[in-house]
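User: Teach me something about this protein's shape.
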Amino acid sequence: MKSRFIFLFLVFAVPLSACGSFPSTEAVPNIETAAATATPDPCSESALPGEIEKINNLMREFDDYSRLASSTPHEQLVQVIPPMQEIRRRAESQKAPPCLQELKKTQIDHMNAVIETLIAFMGNPQAEEVKNGIALARDLHMKYDIEISRLLGLTLVVPTGAALPPSSVTQTQPAAVSVLNPGPDEVVLRSAPDANSGGVAVLAAGGVAAASGRTADGLWYQVEVPGQPGQKAWVSASEVQVSGEPPVIVP
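Assistant: First, the predicted structure itself:
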């Protein structure tokens, strides 16, 4: 609205100045103001993470309902599906810059697959459509995670047997070894490489953490706790996807 006002002001300022109502120099500051209010490129390196977060916030919200649906009795799924449809509508109407169109499309495709599978499950839990829908939703979520990693300059190590879109992770190289939580649940970061050790933090679905080492058997990775520089924790290799291979360290 502000830029439109400036534009209209400039349009009308020219004939007014010609009639002597305004000095001709009055147009110069307005041109500078219009230039100063130019919208920054949302696909720039500095703006891109924030734009991705806007899309991923809806994905995380949808994933929360997906987890709820997985533990909801068959006859009560009708109460869970409408909120998921509402999130999908918000995702469809959310504006995304050109560089994130593929990410947005994959997100919506995943949401559609989950919702359609739940509806089919309500009709017949044993239907082949349900089995195929679960596989499709899982593959689309993996594709979504891979696209985020590509945009952020990470390379994923995809679990054996997972669907891998062509040319999905070969275009970029990681700046450092990192782990990614593919979701849909949070991953507990522990004080030691042991499932019985205490949790010190969590890695959110879609979250990334720098990896500094691993156990000799490769079952645990030492990572830096996001938002806590210098704070180390351990995460199970079975719960994350890893770019590169950090050195072996002794806990």
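Now, about its shape. Residues 178-243 form a domain with the SH3 type barrels. fold (CATH 2.30.30.40). The two ends are 58 Å apart (CA to CA). If you'd like, I can walk through any region in more detail.
User: That's plenty for now, thanks!
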